[in-house]
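Translate structure to sequence.
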């Protein structure tokens, strides 16, 4: 039986949208902590750059994208990670991280490849599993545990699994738990991946969004051989609707992607690339957004812990990861929805998320306070 013989589950955001539509029809005020789509305005200088880049004639963007955008991404990597990337051979723009993640196996796993296993964490961003299933690969979710800091440890999978693995995904700061890791962890994973010739891919969309004083490490700081980093401006710069990201790292893999990607997509529109260039070139607006998310995180976490909820992980990204306080999870989520409080059940992110829920730090502080007041009315 092939991986595609199993029908994919409905993407969790679709389920949440349906729930919100039902609440709206009934006139229930909605406090939406479900989907990670921040409401803070995209910085004005980014929007203005996009407007000024609108040409009278619209033409196809190229696969490799504008060189100044690739240079801006390399410049960010230099400032943030202290690494030097060749913008011509190690950086490739993408129309957001989702499509880059989803399409990766099409470029690096040949139809006759014997190693078709793709390892990813569970709970996790659902696209890792979806990518494996839709491309006919073998999805291999690795349950994460609170007791070890939600770390995916490749060495614990055993040599038989590792020999069959072509791609392994890690993601820190982690969606949905918000957990982070240190450089020693990344070095261990690189060493194991290198031993078994596994392409180690880091979903680095939240590298610039953390709640502590020290920024988390990135995979490119360990090596740029045998690894890829995939990043995005969606949360970092408030550009979810712009669909702009990058793929960076191993030059050989980037060359493979340049050959494959014309078959299934191109870079973002030229005016979006212009906006992305100025976004990657500026760090001040990111620090402001980080402070906003930190304030939201502190307000919610303090309230929930005062009510006896267990908050774990939650060191970065834009999420709180909270343990469901009762074995009756369905009743718990139903009661929250009755009061217009929308959260994402942990199982939306895979079986490893059962028993938890994720709260996206989307509402502003006033809305969070209103949600807290409503939550106080619920006997949960």
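Result:
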């Amino acid at each position: 039986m092939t991986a595609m013989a199993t029908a994919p589950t409905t993407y969790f955001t679709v389920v949440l949208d349906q729930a919100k539509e039902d609440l709206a029809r009934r006139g229930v005020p909605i406090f939406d902590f479900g989907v990670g789509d921040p409401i803070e305005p995209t910085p004005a200088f980014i929007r203005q750059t996009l407007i000024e880049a609108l040409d009278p004639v619209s033409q196809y963007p190229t696969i490799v994208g504008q060189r100044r955008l690739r240079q801006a991404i390399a410049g960010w990597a230099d400032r943030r990670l202290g690494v030097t990337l060749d913008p011509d051979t190690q950086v490739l723009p993408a129309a957001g991280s989702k499509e880059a993640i989803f399409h990766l196996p099409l470029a690096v796993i040949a139809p006759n490849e014997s190693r078709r296993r793709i390892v990813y964490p569970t709970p996790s961003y659902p696209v890792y599993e979806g990518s494996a299933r839709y491309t006919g690969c073998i999805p291999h979710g690795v349950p994460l545990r609170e007791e070890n800091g939600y770390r995916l440890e490749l060495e614990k999978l055993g040599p038989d699994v590792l020999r069959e693995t072509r791609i392994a995904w890690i993601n820190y700061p982690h969606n949905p738990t918000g957990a982070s890791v240190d450089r020693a962890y990344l070095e261990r994973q690189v060493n194991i991946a290198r031993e078994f010739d596994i392409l180690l891919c880091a979903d680095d969309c939240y590298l610039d969004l953390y709640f502590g004083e020290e920024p988390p490490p990135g995979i490119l700081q360990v090596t740029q051989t045998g690894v890829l980093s995939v990043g995005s401006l969606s949360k970092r710069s408030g550009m979810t609707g712009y669909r702009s990201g990058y793929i960076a790292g191993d030059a050989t893999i980037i060359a493979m992607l340049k050959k494959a990607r014309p078959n299934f997509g191109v870079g973002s529109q030229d005016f979006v690339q212009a906006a992305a260039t100025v976004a990657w070139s500026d760090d001040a607006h990111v620090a402001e957004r980080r402070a906003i998310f930190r304030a939201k995180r502190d307000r919610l976490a303090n309230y929930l812990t005062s009510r006896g909820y267990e908050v774990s992980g939650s060191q970065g990204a834009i999420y709180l990861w909270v343990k469901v306080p009762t074995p009756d999870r369905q009743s718990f989520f139903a009661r929250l929805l009755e009061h217009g409080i929308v959260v994402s059940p942990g199982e939306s992110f895979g079986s490893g998320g059962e028993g938890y829920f994720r709260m996206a730090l989307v509402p502003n502080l006033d809305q969070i306070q209103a949600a807290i007041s409503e939550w106080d009315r619920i006997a949960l």
